[in-house]
Structures are given as C-alpha cells and as structure tokens.
Amino acid sequence: MKDPSLRVVGHQWARDAHAIKDFLGRNQVAFRWLDLDRTRQAGVILEREGLTGAALPVVLLPDGTVLEDPSLEALAEHLGMHMHAERTYYDVAIVGAGPAGLAAAVYGASEGLSTVLIEGEAPGGQAGTSSRIENYLGFPTGVSGAELAERALSQATRFGAEVLTPLSATGLAINGGYKTLELSDGSSLSCRGLIVATGVAYRHLPTEGLDRLTGAGVYYGAATTEALAAEGQHVYVVGSANSAGQGAKYFSKFARTVTVIVRGPDLAAHMSQYLIDQIDQTSNIEVVPHTRITKAIGENRLEQIELENNETGEKRTVPASFLFIFIGGAPSHDWLGDAVLCDEFGYILTGPDLLENNALPHDWPLPRHPFHLETSSPGVFATGDVRHGSIRRVAGAVGEGSTAIQLVHRYLAEHHE
Ligand SMILES: Cc1cc2nc3c(=O)[nH]c(=O)nc-3n(C[C@H](O)[C@H](O)[C@H](O)COP(=O)(O)OP(=O)(O)OC[C@H]3O[C@@H](n4cnc5c(N)ncnc54)[C@H](O)[C@@H]3O)c2cc1C
Which of 30, 52, 70, 388 is the most exposed place for a label (fewest CB within 10 A)? Predict the structure, then answer.
C-alpha cells in the first residue's frame, strides 16, 4: 500500500465515486474516503481548497494535485501507473492479470522470455476480489485475494515481466508467426506467443432498477471498498456459489445482518461444504431459499428491493441499502474477433477440444495437432476461466498459466525464423 494521504471526496451513493474507490482499492492504492453526507471534514476540505463548486468526486493527490471527476485512465496516469509498453516486440504477451496471467508472467519472465502482461482493470482478476481464499495450496489459514495478487505481481516484476495496467487489449492481427495486439490507448505491440487469460466478467442481472442503481447501493462482487459504509446495516447478498458465501462471511463482520437470497432450496448445489458450515455457524447470516429479486427501488440510491418466492409466487418489498450480487460470469473477448474457435457459451476451445471426430479444424495450418492449451490459431494459448473445460479455481488457473509458458517455448522453437 502506498500514498496514505491520497483523499477522495464525494457522495457515498454516487456511481463515479464508487468507480474511483473500487479502482484504487483493487489496485492497492491506499486512500482516505471523505463522504460529504457523513463527514463534516469532507466539506471543510473542499472549502479550504477553494473547491466548493468542483465536479465531484474530487481526488486530492499527496503532491497537491487536485483532480475533479477524473477518468480512471487520467487518475492512473497521475498515480504514475505503468501504462505504456517499453518495447514494440515481446517473445510472449499475456492478456489478463488474474491468477492465470500472473502465473504465466512469473514463468515467462523467470525463464528468459521477454514478457509483457496487459491488464485492463487491476491485477488479481476475480481472485483479487475474494475476501479469503481458503483452498489454495500453501495457505492453511487462507489468504485474501488482494494479498495473493500483490505477492504474484511483485514476483512477476522481480523476474522482469513488464506489467501494463490499466490497459486493455482491443484488437488482434495475426501475420504468420507474429501477432499484433491493439491496445486501448491507441498503441500496439507485437509478440510471437500470445496467452489469453482474460477470465470471465460478472454477468449482470436484467432485473428492473438494478442497472440504474449499480454503484449506488447495488454492487457486483464483493466491492470491499463499500464494506465500511455497510457497518451496522442490513446487507443483502444474491448468489449461491462460493463467491457469494465468501461475500456473506465478509460482510457479516461489518453488517448488523446479512441475508443471502438463493433461487434453489439451499446452498448445497454450488457452495463448498466448508463455507456452508461457516455460514451455519454465523449468527447474523440468514439464508432465504426459493427466492429471486424482481425489482430494485430507489430514486438516487437503493432504498428497497422486491423479492419473489419462486414456489408460491408471493412477492414482498423490503427496505435495503446494500445489495451485493454474485451470480457468476461469462467470458468476454470480442477483441479476438474470429481468431479463435469457441464453444456455444463463448469459452475458448484448446488442444484436444478442437478436434471434431478426431479431425483438426479445417483451417489449422500445421502438420502437428494443437498443443494442450493452444487455440485454433497456432501460438495463441488460452488459460484459466476463459478456456472451455477449465475448473474455475485459482489453482487451476495458476497451473494453466505456468503450463502455457512451456508450450510457448515449444512454439517458439518450431518458429525460430
Ligand atoms: C469473489 C470470488 C471468490 C472466489 N474464491 C475462490 C476461492 O476461494 N478459491 C478458488 O480456487 N477460486 C475462487 N474463485 C474463482 C477464481 O477467482 C477464478 O477461478 C480465477 O480468478 C480465474 O483466474 P483467471 O486468471 O482465469 O481469470 P480472472 O481472475 O477472471 O482474471 C482475468 C483478468 O483479465 C482481465 N481482462 C479481461 N479482458 C481484458 C482485456 N481485453 N485486456 C486486458 N485485460 C483484460 C480482467 O480485468 C481480469 O483481471 C473466486 C472467484 C470470485 C469472483
């Protein structure tokens, strides 16, 4: 953590303020949040700095720079985050810095490949948002996703991987053995081995009112930066998999009560038993089965939610200020265009999964079969949650990311022109 004197001033229920807090928190930049609705000091600071008419949220940097309602890119630039590639060519480029991409970066750089890792939001990916990962080898009492991400990031950079964040891949052109990545700042870079580790992004619930109130009481994922504001409040969690269980446990430490809304009869279908047991033993967590959310209500912030019992059809409206949604994700990799073959749900096919009736895809250009983890484009590999058949666990992603580097070596050995 750095820059403890960085301050963000704004309103608790403003989406822009949430986006900035989330960005800083996930990138492990320490900051002080000053809520104009709750802290007198917030208004005093704005007055003292002559910023009473400023566009909110305002970010005050330790060097005295004041940013009014900054974009995340502008904020990142001011924070000196590394967003521009130092070279135009790399042996291997990795897109996505979740566990799979971070592992690939550690192994790529430590084995002598010039390695660049490109991350659109914050290193750590989904795992970075986890309050406590308890089933990853070597951490018997669990580890927070933020700590795991920080350790992996420092390991990758220590070995010499260049990590660009926040920067997204927006396009791909393949020219023989060379791949050119287009990037969100308008620049591009080339590589011979490309590892796609873009994971999944939260699916959004199409329920009435939710989109409008996202960031203003409705949050996807754990949104840990909002946890303190939920102190002493009643929190609702939607979802029945491990991420929802972890979220409920985490919020139970701050909130007065936590209600977990579950569509099915209980948590057993999707949640690990250790988490079910922990929830059973936590007195301020209640699980409400056979229920779905049918409406989010509120003018400028979440005020109520409508719940429907899916067995009886009975509806009820309850007061709610905080709703955290954990309903799983879907792969998003439009930037790859039609460069790789995917299954019907958009997960990328690799290795043996590309064979249909033991036959290679018709435009596969090489005499050999695709390597395990290699996509339908030679030299382009897919790892972790974005890959068809992945086990959707941190350990699986780490294993695939590191394995992919071995396959990049084999690919480079056969394309050494
Ligand atoms: C709240 C939560 C708790 C979890 N708890 C556990 C647990 O306890 N144990 C466990 O084993 N698993 C857990 N999981 C699952 C685990 O986190 C995932 O399986 C794992 O993170 C997948 O890693 P990944 O690297 O494949 O993808 P992700 O973690 O999804 O990372 C993908 C990264 O790619 C980036 N990206 C996407 N598109 C682009 C682009 N175009 N350009 C640049 N970057 C891009 C994203 O911003 C993201 O950072 C949890 C998941 C969640 C959400």
Answer: 52
